[in-house]
Each structure stands twice: as C-alpha cells, then as structure tokens.
Design goal:
heterodimer, A: alpha/beta, 10-stranded mixed beta sheet, globular, B: mainly alpha, 19 helices, 75% helix, 0% strand
Chain lengths: 475, 337
C-alpha cells in the first residue's frame, strides 16, 4: 500500500468519525431547540395545589406498581414516599419478585399484611404467585409475593392485579414526589382518548437529605461520578425525551416512573419477559401496535420531576448498569428492526429508529474507533493538525455545549438546585464529563455490545446505600 | 471546511459557558430576593388564613396591600386549596374591594400560558370592570388550556356564549380535554338542554360528549335513563363504553336493561366494560348475559366476564363455580396457545 493510499484511508476514517459526530451533534442541537420551545410555550406548573384544584374530580384512578427484588435497604423509604402520595384515587401494589433478603419481611411488618384470596386476571404471563397480601392498616396497599422472574415478569403480575384504568410503574428503590401522580396524569386529562402513556423526569437523590420518604434538603453529591450523572439525566430527560415527545416520537419511558393505560398494555400482551430493556421495549411496542391499528395516539412526557432515584457511585457498578442499558437497546433495536426506516411507522420508524442507529448502534463503535485512529494518524503525520483540532472540537466541544445548554434549560424552567454554588459545580461536571468519563462510557457500551452478542442477559447486583432514615412507615 | 467546523464548535462552547456564567451571577445576585419572596409568600398565606378566619376586613386588606401583586395569584391559588368556602368568599370580597381584577386585566396579555390560565381561573371568581371582556378575549387565546380555562370561568359566571360558538372557538385541541366536565357542570341545571345536546350530538368529539354525560350523571346523582338508552347505541365506541362504565356507578331503574344490551355490543371494548359494570351492579338478571360472554372471541371480554361471575358469586355457589370454571378454561386456552 502506497503512502497516498494510507493517507486516503486515514482521511476516509477521519471523515466517517467526524460525520458521525456531526450527525449526533446536529440531532442533539435539534432536540435542544425543540425542548426549549416546548418549555417556553408551556412552562412547568410549580404549584401542585393548582393541579389538584383543576383535575382532582376528573382524574382517573391509578394503581402504582412497584416491583422489588432484594430492596431491603430502600423499600421502606419508597414505601413512605408512596404513603405520602397525594392523589384522589389510587392503589399500590408492591411485587416481591422472589427476594432472597428481608424485603418481604419488612413489608409484612410495616404494612401488617394479611393473606387474601383475591381473584385477578391472568392475562399477562408471569411466574407463579405464591400469595397475595393486603395491608390491614392501609387497604390501598397490596403485596404480591411471587417466584423470581425478573422485572418485566413482576410488572406483568402487577398489571394483572390492577383494577384501575391507569397504572404507574415505579422502581422499588425510588422516592416519589407527593404530587407525582397528579402531575403525570395531566396529559391523560388534557387528551383522554389519545394519550396512552406518560413518562416523567427523574432526579438524583445522592447527596440530598431524605426523611420519611421525602427529599428534605436538595444538595449535590460529593463525588464527581454522580454529579456527572445528574448532567446526563438533565440532558436525557429535559432535552431528548421532551423533544421527542413533542413530535410523538418518544422511544422510552423510564422504568423508574411511567404511567400507562391498562387496556392498551393488555392489548399488546404486557411486558416482554426476559427483555433487558423492558422500558424501551414496551414503548416501541406501543408505537407499533397503535400504528398497525391505525389509531390516533399520544405518548407524552412531563418535564416536572416525578421521583428521586439513587445512582451508582462506583465505576464498577455504573459500568455494569450502562453495559446493561446498551445491551437492552441493542436487543430492542434488533427485535423490532422491521420498524426501522419503515414509512409505515412514520416518525417513530424514520426518526426514533434513526436515532437508535446513530446513537446506540454506530455511536460507541465509531467514537471509540476515533479515539484510537485520529490521534494515531496525526502522530504518524498522515492527518493534518486542522483535522485533529476539528475532531476534538466537534466530538468534545459540542458535547460541552449540549450539556451546559441542557443545564441552562433546567435552571431557567425548573431551578432544580437551590444554591449558586451548585450551578458552578454542575457546570464543571458538564465540562469534565467530556474528558475521561465520556470515553469510559463508550467502552462500557462496547461491553454491552459484547454481552448482547454473547446473549448474556444478567442484571447484575446494584448495591444501594438507601435513603436517609427508614422509620416505620405505614402507621 | 475543517476550520469552519472547529470555529463553530468553539463559538458554541463560548456561548454556552458565557450564558452559564451569566445565569450563575444572576442567581447569586437574586438569591436574596428569591428567599425574601419565599418568606413573604408564606407570611401572606398565613395572614390570609388568619384574617379570613377572623373575618377581619381591615387586617386582611392590609395583608393583601403589603403583598407584591405578582405573588398574589400564586398565594391565592394555594390559599383557596386550603380553606373552607366561607373563608374563600371573604378573601374574594377583599380582592374585589382592592380591585385585584384590575391588576389581572392589566397584566393578562403580558404573562405566559401558565399564568394566563391562572388569571382566567381567578377572573372567574373575582369580578372586575373588564374581567368579562378579558375572559371572552381569552376564548381565542393561542393556548388550548387557556381557552378551556376561560370557558369554564365564563360558565361559572353564567356568561358563556352559546355552546356551539364556544366549542368552535376552543378548537380541536381545546375540545379534547376532560376538563370540560367542569364546564358542563357549571352550566347545570340552567342550561341543561345545551349539555344534553352536546352529549347526544354524534358529530362532537367523544371526550366532549363523555364529559357532558358525566356532568349530567353527577348532577342528578344517577344515570339519565332515556339519554343513556340512546347513547348505548352510539356509533362511537368511547361513548358506548362510557355509558357502560357510568351504568356501573350505582343500581338505578332501567340500568340492567341497557347494560344487558351493551353486553352484546359489537365492540369488545364496550362488552368488556359492560361486563365489569355488571359485576359491580350484581344484578342477577344479567347473569345469563354475562355467562354467555364466556364464549366471547376476545380474551379480555372473557376474563372480565369470568371475573364478574366469580367476584359477585351471583345466585349462590353454582355461579361462583361457573366463574372459577371460566378462569380455569381461560388458563387452559392460554397454555394451549
């Protein structure tokens, strides 16, 4: 191979890397613009009393379903936050997915559970139920004790027992805001016929002080890793999901908080068992079903924070989580690949799946390729200094811009952190994220690729610190 | 090309970092004013609760005058959610004395969508010189939520234009919300024919018709028989399903006959809801119709029917067993599939 050939191929590889970076950046900038316009036109309602006055009499009943597997350290905090929920009519079903720790015992003690023989619709498949319990001190609370079958399996069991037209899926380790349900139900009130699902924003509880299942004092975590995840969450929820929901192209509703219409979930056969990305999977199937049936529908997103979750503080746990997310995304993409770029599925097929191709499929491979090849070609004298600088500016520079711009969106509309110092620290995290963390993240995602190729479907352990105090809940 | 890309990226970073720095500076500068606003917000709420409870006009007026007018809508809306109707009236009278409606009227067009909706709600309760003009004007607002809010306020004040004209002004997005329940509720009983006309009009949006139907049922605390009978055969599945759901709200004369008819409806959604309502009503006359749904082609309907039979244990152990049998049959079918 002659030197001119080497230069030609080096330039080609660099242009592929650059083009991929430019497309990803353009996509993010477009999302940013759409999210900003949505928030400007419809600013978040800060006062939840107003929402209560506006729709307490017409809000449909909701069942909150919380799957829990070995959540002994966080279940009491979650329970307390569920007890504090303010909503006209709701039930709560906690699904103990064959926990091997003290989760069920704690629930039994806190809720004074009694076994009941409650009939339920066995419409959606799940592992056998050992016993259904009802709380003797708060009849809103139900507990399903079943054999271990995974998150989707537990969610299906919960949906089968639910008696209300809407159900809300939450994680067993999240703290719900008191007004989460009344906020989340707004799209169902605004457009009851077409709305089939609503997603909500998550916030990170690490560093904040919690008491009785509620966040009492908002603060930033001390470690950089969770701070970077705060920036990531703002970028994901306040920018990407809000933007996609504006054009009815929302591809994922977080498993930590999502409100769904029960009849439509039953129509699609519930959650896919064994899926590593059950939250992505269910939304894609909802899109597919509604478009196949040619029914008008809407999957909405509410930007106000709905719940608080604890994020990993160690690289090891975070790497496992992100590899699993990547594995789930690939699983869903290939499972529903027929929808990709298929005009029958409209924006979902053309835009939503295109984003999956660019971000989830090609993104980590091309970016990691760039980490090695571009500096190498430059060091060998094959690439010009301008090319190297353009690569750095596009891949990292625009990353910084998008992160800070999403923080600006959050600050202007939601004012999520109380002190100016918090803003400074988050801004620093948004810049630092691009130097070290971003590269690691892409390697973790490649590991997700490897897990997908090896069909390795393991959730792995996610050690929890737990939320503040865990005082007796139900009384 | 490469220089252009690098230059654009550098400019973007500079712009973002610059704006972020400005926001931090603004936050630091305004930190004091934010906290003082929060304090006055709480103090105002406490003062309103105290002086309205004691019905002390002088102190109540003084507390309201001392408050930044910008804060009043939010304080009032919180306060109204906490107090009894009598105290609410006392504060409304104070706001009218102080011409708060004038402030709302003056600032209506300058605010964002959320504030405009709040202003509409307050103008529905606080009477001012031009408040009706503002509300009529708000019926053509760009935001559907504001248009609906204005319509509800006008209806509460008994000043809503003819219903057809109002609904036309609300536009398709404004006609979809279930908040119209409040609009129709405010029109009852004086304009009940308008409400019945909307509920019975097949050309209207189903959600609108359902809201009208719910308001009628709620107002008379019972399903309205003749209307239900007509709507049970409605071409809209949503409306027929709503009828089936509302019939399950309580045992009233004639419900059984309509519900039995709905159990044989062409749409599985309606049959399913009807089966659920039949279970709630526990009317033995419907047992045969519910049992016949055991052979329904739709699994959701079969389940609803089985559940109704089992949960209600109609007519003794025989029917409870029938419910169990239906469940067992269903499980067997699913396993075979």
């Amino acid at each position: 191979m002659s030197k001119s050939d080497i230069i030609y191929w080096a330039e080609m590889v660099t242009w592929v890397v650059l083009a991929s970076g430019i497309i990803q950046n353009l996509l993010q900038i477009a999302q940013l613009g759409m999210a900003a316009s949505t928030l400007y036109r419809r600013p978040p309602v800060i006062n939840s009393h107003l929402l209560w006055q506006r729709c307490s009499e017409i809000a449909p009943a909701i069942t909150v379903i919380a799957p829990a597997f070995n959540e002994a350290s966080t279940i009491l905090g979650s329970l307390q936050s569920m007890l504090a929920l303010q909503y006209p009519q709701f039930d709560i079903i906690i699904v103990n997915d064959g926990s091997t720790d003290a989760t069920l015992d704690m629930l039994r003690a806190e809720l004074a559970l009694v076994p009941v023989d409650e009939p339920y619709e066995e419409l959606l498949p799940h592992k056998p139920i050992r016993q259904i319990y009802c709380s003797s001190i708060n009849p809103r609370f139900w507990v399903i004790d079943k054999e271990n079958g995974g998150k989707a399996d537990s969610q299906n069991a919960g949906v089968n027992l639910a008696r209300t037209p809407l159900f809300c899926i939450v994680d067993g380790d999240t703290l719900l805001e008191q007004d989460a349900l009344i906020r989340a139900v707004q799209p169902f009130v605004d457009d009851p016929e077409r709305t089939i699902a609503v997603g909500g924003s998550l916030r990170i509880a690490n560093g904040s002080r919690t008491r009785s299942g509620q966040v009492q004092k908002i603060d930033l975590p001390e470690k950089l890793l969770p701070r970077i995840q705060i920036v990531e969450y703002f970028r994901s929820f306040l920018m990407a999901r809000l933007a996609w929901s504006k054009i009815n192209c929302l591809m994922i509703i977080s498993g930590a908080f999502g409100l769904f219409r029960k009849d439509v979930i039953n129509e699609i056969g519930g959650y896919t068992l064994g899926s590593m990305g059950e939250d992505l999977d269910i939304v894609i199937r909802l899109h597919r079903h509604m478009r196949d049936m040619k029914r008008a529908y809407r999957i909405a997103f509410v930007p106000e924070p709905m719940c608080w979750t604890e994020v990993p503080e160690s690289l090891k746990v975070l790497s496992r989580q992100r590899a699993r997310w990547q594995n789930g995304a690939l699983d869903c993409f290939f499972r529903y690949r027929g929808m990709a770029l298929n005009p029958r599925y409209g924006r979902v097929g053309m835009l939503g799946f295109m984003q999956m191709v660019i971000v989830d499929l090609a993104g980590p491979i091309v970016e990691v390729l760039g980490y090695f090849t571009v500096p190498l070609f430059w060091a060998l004298g094959v690439l010009s200094y301008e090319s190297l600088f353009a690569y750095v500016a596009i891949v990292f520079g625009v990353g910084v811009f998008v992160s800070i711009a999403s923080l600006i969106l959050a600050e202007v509309q939601l004012r999520p952190y109380p002190r100016p110092l918090h803003l400074l620290e988050l801004g620093s995290a948004a810049i630092l994220e691009n130097f070290g963390y971003r590269q690691l993240h892409n390697f973790w995602r490649l590991r997700g690729y490897w897990q997908y190729l090896r069909k390795k479907n393991e959730w792995g352990e996610m050690p929890r610190i737990g939320f503040g105090d865990a005082a007796p809940a139900a009384r | 090309m490469l220089e252009f890309l690098s230059g654009s990226a550098a400019l973007l970073i500079l712009a973002a970092v610059g704006m972020w720095a400005i926001l931090i500076a603004a936050r630091a500068f305004k930190a004091h004013s934010h906290s003082s606003r929060a304090v006055s917000h709480r103090a105002a709420g406490a003062a309103l609760i105290k002086w309205s409870d004691l019905d002390n006009e002088e102190q109540l007026d003084a507390a309201l005058i001392a408050l930044d007018p910008e804060l009043i809508p939010d304080v009032i809306s919180r306060f109204f959610s906490l107090v009894a109707e009598s105290e609410k009236k006392i504060v409304l009278a104070a706001l009218e004395r102080l011409d708060f409606a004038g402030y709302l009227e003056k600032n209506f067009r300058r605010t964002d969508q959320g504030q405009r909706l709040l202003f509409c709600e307050l103008l529905g309760e606080i009477h001012g010189e031009h408040s009706l003009d503002i509300l009529h004007w708000a019926l053509t607002d760009a935001a559907p939520a504001v248009r609906v809010g204005a319509a509800i306020s006008l209806a509460r004040r008994g000043e809503l234009p003819p219903i057809a004209e109002t609904l036309e002004r609300l536009g398709p997005a404004g006609r979809r919300t279930s908040r119209h329940f409040y609009l129709f509720e405010a029109l009852l009983p004086d304009r009940r024919f308008d409400v019945v006309a909307v509920a019975a009009d097949p050309s209207r949006e189903p959600s609108l018709r359902i809201a009208a139907l719910q308001a009628l049922v709620r107002h008379w605390a019972a399903p309205t028989g003749p209307l239900m009978r007509v709507l049970a055969d409605d071409s809209s599945t949503h409306v027929a399903a709503a009828v089936a759901r509302l019939l399950g709200g309580g045992p009233h004369r004639g419900n059984g006959e309509i519900l039995t008819r709905l159990l044989g409806h062409g749409s599985p959604i309606v049959r399913r809801v009807a089966a659920e309502s039949a279970g709630i009503l526990a009317d033995p006359e419907m047992a045969t119709a519910v049992r016949s749904l055991g052979g329904d082609p739709d699994p959701l309907v079969r389940h609803a029917a089985a559940l109704a039979l089992r949960r209600l244990a109609l007519g003794g152990p025989g029917d409870a067993d029938a419910g169990d049998d239906a469940f067992a049959l269903e499980r067997a079918r699913r396993m075979a599939a």
